Structures
1.
Amino acid sequence: MKKVLTKNINHLLLILKPDRFYKPDWNKYTSRTRQQYACIIAIVLGLMLGCANKDTISQALYIKGDLVLDYQPKSNLVQKQSILSKPKYPVIDVHTHFSGDVTPAFLIEKMDALGIKAIVNLSGGYGVKLDQMLEKFSHYGPDRLIIFCNLDLSKIDDSDFSEQMEAFLSAAHAKGARGLKIFKNLGLTVKDKTGQIVAIDDVRFDPVWEKAGELGMPVLIHTADPVAFFKPTDRFNERLMQLKRHPNWSFYGAAFPERETIIAQRNRVIARHPNTIFIGAHVGNSAEDLTMISKLLDSYPNFYVDVAGRVAELGRQPYTARKFLIKYQDRVLFGTDRYPGKPAQPRYTIYYRFFQTQDEYFDYYDHPFPPAGEWKIYGVFLPDEVLEKIYCKNAQRVLGLR
Ligand SMILES: [Zn+2]
């Protein structure tokens, strides 16, 4: 009796906890009294547990009628654990975001501690914000704190949108902005007055891409997102726990264009503007399919990728990733999507470990929960010359740095 009751309580506890993805086997609740009894206990316990344990997100397993909550197996492998506090070569992080609240002195101090030569803030903005960013950071360390500008897409319906953006780009460049960042909202959510989502290869942007090329400003473009964000948020989704934490990161359904559609729009832009350098953020957002991204790199010499936020993807396919990084050693740029000294979810030392070591089966994160999915990564021990290019030399060339 006790065993049956415990099992019923466990079932119902899971139903009551919103984070659990679990479907009960209702056939087990045959007797009405048992259902009511179990429900009352479950509600009381569920409330207690729910309050005490509100933000817990972890694996629950159901094995032969037993529930294992918060399953976190500890590896028993006996192996070398490399701790790399500094990179083998100076690093340029081409993919950071920081606001005007941090001070340049703080950034420089953290950069020096982590062996970072330069960082690119992709959130430079436009207008007054951009002016302030350039004033505060670029003037402080012109070759160390680099600012990319962004387009004001709220002007998309202006009849002279293209001319306005061209003029903006020229002015931003003259003031010290070194490149242009396009956020993922283009192609995904931005609409014009027709009510339609604006395509990335909309002709209104053509003069802007062309101008960027003329000015020698690389365009770092974030298009789409991981494959899992375009799939149903169900128990088959490999990033389910991440999507449970951030439901607004799901772009599944009729309200959004297909992932392949927007990636194809981006690719047409890259093809149409061979004199402009495009850097596909997050391994071109196709780190799950390195064969596909290889074909793009083969087709378009003006296409580069950064690795920001995708060491989790690269590190779980180390054989393929190593070959990819060596083959495209001139086209891959180091990036994190963090900034030096950012307290939340630090990445630098994990990235160094991934690129430099032969460590196996380690966490790609340094906080309590896996940010993407439940897997481990393996180091790709890149040869020195490849490492130096990906860490620094490619970015130096693309950004025109000394
Ligand atoms: Zn980013």
2.
Amino acid sequence: MAQFRVAKESEIPDGRGLRVRVGRVEIGLYRVDGEIFAMEDLCPHAGYPLHEGDLDGPVVTCPQHLWQFDVRTGMHPGESDGWPIPCFPIRVVDGEVWIDVQLPDEDPT
Ligand code: FES
């Protein structure tokens, strides 16, 4: 797992996500009660970028067809099983957001 500095904490808006990219992975950063969370920015329904949805507490609503996800877990709110959206560990150091991401191996061909 590699660590990447992806944003300043101050760039993450309230009530919405901030999209960043690590390699080929698009990630939404969210602020929930002063804590930062990172979840892959791809709605599993039809691929819409979830960071464009409204964030209410820990729940982001996809603006396309209104599916909801808990950005802390990647799960539908109130559900504990299924196929969650990948979430990533975050560290904030001196106002900079660092993320741990396992990038897929590059294709050498
Ligand atoms: S694309 Fe997100 S709910 Fe349909």
